[in-house]
Amino acid sequence: MKIVHACEQTLRIDAKLRNARVDFSEMTATIVAIATDQFRDGRRVAGYAFNSFGRYACGGPMRERFIPRLLAAPPSDLLDPDSGRLDPPRAVAALLRREKAGAHAERSMAVGTLELALWDAAAKLEGRPLYQTLAERYGVAGAGEPRAIPCYAGGGFYKPADDRALLLREIQGYLDAGYRDVKIKAGGLPLAEDLDRIESALSLLQNGSRLALDASCAFGRDEALAYARAIAPYGLRWLEEPCDPADFETYRAVSQAYPGLVAGGENLYSKEEAENFLRYGPAGARLILQPDPPLAYGVGEFHRIVRIAARHGVPAARIMPHGGNLMSLHVAAGLGLGGAESYPGLFGAFGGFGREVRIQEGRASLPASPGIGFEEQPELYRIFTALPLNA
Ligand code: MG
Asked: The CATH number of the domain where 311 resides is what?
């Protein structure tokens, strides 16, 4: 098996959304396609991925370093020596040769997105959905079984101004679509107005445990503690990213003062960053961990983070990959994690899971298509297949 071609493209994601810190008017994403020399059902096997959502495109390092290294890699850098199967984490090790340690965000997204595209190809070569390939490779008992896994709707952005009627329509839409748990953005308004917004959302949900808040790194220490104190009576599902992801001291203080769960991890880009967060940040017993597979070197690194988290008292059931896309859904299922996020109706072609996945009673069914299954997300698949893969 050989990689015969790989290419990337930057796309604009036109989203008129705002969280507590940023608006998404300039947002971009990188899409990649990797072609193998193998054929299944008369079609060339290719892998596709994109760099999740919320960080800008990462095509520069891909074009200049990582795609040339991937194309130059000998088979021994790509294939498991025992099984002869495509081995994406092995490929990552080859891509990282001649890369200095540290400064992970400079490359983790480029490498992670390529790794996910390689996993898409690897599962297609095996003729099964990616979560089954991952469950077998990582030896997670029962994770390869077809089933439905917990899934919550992430949304509730300030759009760009707070529009309460729109927020309530959005949440009702999620409930009507089969979701039970919802996450909304927080910290983007003065505290009293934000609390009023939270109470509006709660009016549609059965109880506080159905609602999570995402503060998108909005606060310094004093504000974070005041906010946590103010929302404590609601008994919410979790408070996500109350402060900068590297402000371990504030994170820890919030997790000690706030009686509920604190969430974070989408802005950690390596196992080293995750381990420091777990060592010095929020108490493990109070944490929901949410790394993003393509943003942080891919599934191989994600699995290492899962093992590190267990040592720090965070079980797999309290790890929920960030991203709200099919890639994260497969990682959540294949590694036996606590569930997944979804962005139904947001971010255009990049949002949602496509037509194979059913949402019912707060759970998402798993795709049956080989690979990640972007083929069943037609608008996005058209974007992938427009890449000049046979150039
Ligand atoms: Mg978040």
From this structure: 3.20.20.120
